[in-house]
Amino acid sequence: MRLVVRQGMTLVAIGVAIGLAAGAALTRLLTGLLYGVSPLDVMAWGAVIAALAIAGLLATLLPAARATRADPMLAIRVE
């Protein structure tokens, strides 16, 4: 289960890093649309990162936990 979660969270971390870079690059274009929030507001960026990390963790943890409860012999026999 750790292997699956680690691989999934690696992809989440890469996606968050790419998203942060793209978001930082696009803040100049979106400055006019932001109301009451500065383009580089640490709390807003932190909240988004935390939400995406939690969603990614749940998206990898729940299927991995379910897969550990499956009978391997039954899974092999079905294929």
Written overview of the protein:
The chain has 79 residues and is mainly alpha-helical. It has one domain. It has helices spanning 2-30, 42-68, 72-78. The model has no long low-confidence stretch (mean pLDDT 87).
Total domain modules: 1
Q: List the quaternary state of the chains.
A: single chain
Low-confidence stretches: none
State the separation between the terminal residues, measured CA to CA. Answer: 21 Å
Largest sheet: none
Please compute the radius of gyration using only Cα atoms. 18 Å
Shape: elongated
Notable traits:
79 residues, 3 helices, elongated, mainly alpha, 80% helix
Write the layout of secondary structure elements.
Layout (H helix, E strand, L loop, with lengths): L1 H29 L11 H27 L3 H7 L1
Helix pairs in contact: 1-2
